[in-house]
Design a protein that fits this description.
The complex is a heterodimer of chains A (about 425) and B (about 230). Chain A has 16 helices and 14 strands. Chain A is α+β, with helices and mostly antiparallel strands and about 425 residues long. With about 230 residues, chain B is α/β, with parallel strands linked by helices. The chains are: A alpha+beta (about 425), B alpha/beta (about 230).
């Protein structure tokens, strides 16, 4: 009987084309929608992690509480020992790098050494000069260079291209950083500007400079001292598992704090954070998930409504057949079951087609991306100008399963109408056709 | 003596029509013996189709009883009624009601699938039945490729392929010309003799009288005449 039903579906296109199209389009749109939304939030989290917070972060509590002031005197000493501790207490997939966040005045002198222009900037010091440094790849600095080159020697600096435009900077120009040393004194050091970078994040491109970690330690008198240890996980890592790693590290650190490194101050106390603990991302992520669930739920509900109507229309179209089948002794339940079976078969085929199309579109948006630079320019969000979708099995199944179920559910609801009509009525209507 | 297949006792059937009640049948009693080839004649609205629907288990009487052998139809559950129709009744319709997306062979196969048979087990029976109604050459054609007479032959094959005790034909010749009507009636007569299936035909067509062995006349929901006929010699 199953074969019989499928044969009918294949031969009678009015029974199959519309529901198949609805399921395929619905599934494709759902897959793209999930992929796009995952891409946006994933991209925002990834950008934030790479440029600013890391997926995991170890920071001195005292520094973290006032980090908007860049209090260098509260950075965490014992860089070498901290690095070893983190490596031995973290899961293998976590990679740690040290960074220094700093704030300073950028002074651009003329040929005589007089100030030509000056502006407050924020900066990050990271490992730019070691061979095989992952930071260059992590921040995609090679791809982000719009002019010049990456630092290859000490005391070379990269600046955001919008900052360079504002200050009318030239490559090879000397710049002086005026900041605060670890012990609170004035720090002043000269750098050569060797490249302009475009992160695609307006917030950074307007006021960010990058220097090598060792240079910063030299300029700010921070030998073996860093403000941050940032940890990264491989692509595709479940972001919600970061909380577990954070808790394990926090538990382990309680023993470490009891016998701290000799270079630590008495009130130094490292704390651990995930990317979602910072910059309000946790709240955004929660809201994003809720909004995504609502949007997808509404979408699926609409798909069920359309397929339910399609099921009813199909039932009307097939009144003659249904009456005949009842007359021949098929029970109402058997007919309902066969309609649902057909819907299931159509749902599977439609869902597969929709998933392939949806995955293709998502992949395209993942590779090519969607340039929303103009829209994002003033938002201040740490969101790449080019928004990319993210294709995942979860997104594909998230589209397919509701697509199949909505067809089955719609058809089942429509098939209940068969029960409401008496056999003789169906039969009479059959005779009157 | 031939056993009684259908026994109808004082059956009344009413339908609500707005606030009125329309009495389609008013106390009909009838016995149908095994192998009968009978017609129910009468003007429109006399209750012919209603009586066929009641015998076929598509409807239930408002009053009175219908027995299939010793089983009272009104005592059956909906599921049992479905099984009754499935196993015992073959329907032949005025407008054939073939399933347009299926071939002749598949239309004839359909009632056996409903009975839970596997195609492989019944293929020969289906092919034989298609051949018996003279359509072996058309087995793979769809209904829209057939003439009216051929469609009615398919409908007859579909009704009889499961060898039911009763075949109910509602105006089987109404859509056919004289020659096709004659051929269809001859075919039904032959199959009635071969298979001992009860044929009950509701009809306006006076030509049917020449073929049947019994003619029941309905007027205003009551039997006005019940005549034994010569049938086809």
């Amino acid at each position: 009987m199953f074969k019989w039903n499928i044969l009918g579906v294949l031969r009678d296109r009015t029974r199959s084309v519309f529901p198949l199209t609805v399921v395929a389009v619905g599934v494709a749109l759902t897959v793209v929608l999930i992929g796009f939304m995952d891409g946006i939030i994933g991209g925002m989290i990834q950008s934030t992690a790479n440029l600013d917070t890391g997926s995991l972060r170890m920071v001195n509590k005292a520094y973290y509480e006032e980090e908007h002031l860049f209090p260098m005197d509260r950075a965490l000493a014992g860089q070498t020992e901290s690095g070893k501790w983190l490596k031995s207490h973290s899961p293998e997939e976590v990679t740690w790098s040290a960074r220094i966040r700093w704030g300073a005045l950028l002074d651009i002198p003329d040929k005589e050494g007089m100030t030509l222009s000056q502006t407050p900037i924020i900066g990050t010091a990271l490992d730019l000069l070691s061979s095989g440094s992952e930071e260059i790849h992590r921040l995609q600095l090679t791809e982000s260079l719009v002019q010049g080159r990456l630092p290859v020697s000490p005391k070379e600096m990269l600046v955001g291209y919008q900052l360079a435009e504002t200050l009318n900077l030239k490559l090879g120009q000397r710049a002086t950083l005026l900041g605060q040393t670890f012990d609170g004194a004035l720090a002043a050091d000269n750098y050569i500007i060797v490249g302009f970078v475009k992160f695609g994040l307006t917030a950074l491109d307007k006021k960010m400079a990058l220097i090598d970690l060792k240079d910063a330690q030299d300029s700010f008198y921070m030998e073996d001292i860093v403000t941050d240890w940032l940890g990264w996980v491989p692509p595709g890592f479940d972001i919600e598992k970061l909380e577990l790693i954070k808790n394990e590290l926090t538990d382990s650190a309680s023993d470490w704090i009891k016998t701290p490194p000799a270079s630590w101050s008495p009130d130094d106390r490292p704390i651990f954070l995930t990317v979602l603990d910072q910059r309000g991302l946790g709240a955004i992520y929660k809201k994003f998930k809720a909004v995504r669930a609502v949007i997808i739920g509404v979408f699926i509900f609409l798909m069920i409504l359309v397929l339910w109507n399609a099921g009813i229309l199909n039932g009307i179209h097939r009144y003659g057949e249904l009456g005949l089948r009842l007359a021949m002794g098929e029970s109402h339940a058997q007919i309902s079951f066969s309609l649902v079976t057909e819907a299931f078969a159509i749902g599977i085929i439609g869902a597969v087609i929709g998933a392939i199309v949806g995955a293709g579109c998502t992949l395209y948006l993942q590779v090519k991306g969607l340039d929303m630079g103009n829209n994002l320019a003033q938002t201040g969000l740490m969101l790449n100008d080019v928004v990319r979708a993210r294709l995942s099995w979860r997104g594909v199944w998230g589209g397919m399963i509701p697509g199949i179920l909505s067809g089955v559910l719609g058809s089942w609801v429509a098939s209940l109408a068969i029960y409401k009509r008496s056999t003789s009525n169906l039969f009479r209507e059959l005779e009157n056709e | 003596m031939d056993e009684t297949v259908i026994r109808i006792e004082n059956v009344v059937k009413t339908y609500p029509v707005g606030i009125e009640v329309f009495k389609a049948l008013r106390g009909v009693s009838l016995e149908v013996k095994k192998g009968a080839f009978m017609s129910i004649v009468g003007p429109s609205g006399s209750g012919k189709t209603t009586l066929l629907n009641l015998i076929g288990g598509l409807d239930t009487p408002t009053e009175g009883s219908i027995f299939f052998y010793d089983k009272k139809l009104s005592h059956m559950t909906r599921k049992e009624m479905s099984a009754y129709r499935r196993d015992n009744i073959g329907f032949i319709f005025q407008s054939y009601n073939l399933l347009p997306v299926y071939t002749v062979y598949e239309n004839v196969l359909f009632p056996l699938l409903v009975m839970g048979k596997r195609e492989g087990d019944v293929r020969k029976s289906v092919e034989d039945m298609v051949a018996r109604v003279g359509l072996a050459e058309c087995a793979n054609k769809r209904p829209n490729q057939l003439s009216g007479g051929q469609c009615q032959r398919v409908a007859i094959a579909r009704a009889l392929v499961k060898r039911p005790p009763i075949a109910l034909a509602d105006e089987p010749t109404a859509n056919l010309d004289a020659e096709n009507s004659r051929q269809i009636l001859e075919l039904m007569t032959e199959l009635n003799r071969e298979m001992k299936t009860v044929f009950i035909l509701s009809t306006h067509d006076e030509r049917v009288s020449k073929f049947v062995t019994r003619e029941v006349k309905l007027e205003d929901g009551m039997i006005s005449q019940d005549n034994l006929m010569d049938g086809l010699k």
